[in-house]
Amino acid sequence: MNWTDLxxxxxxxxxxxxxxxxxxxxxWRRSLALLAQLGDGQLRLFGLGSMLAGVVLLLLVRG
Length: 63
Fold this sequence. Notes:
The chain has about 60 residues and is mainly alpha-helical. The chain has one domain. It contains 3 helices and no strands. It has helices spanning about 5-25, 25-35, 40-60. Helix 1 (about 5-25) crosses helix 2. The protein is flat.
């Protein structure tokens, strides 16, 4: 892996993160309000699941 791959991945991350607030700002605000009400354990579990899904997807794509 080189720096261009890392920067391309970061750029794609920013594009994907920007889609929801661009398409539905009110829905995005509601989602953030709901996330703010979750406990630390629930947020950690959500973060762990997200990281594991990302690693599995990366392994499938990059082999």
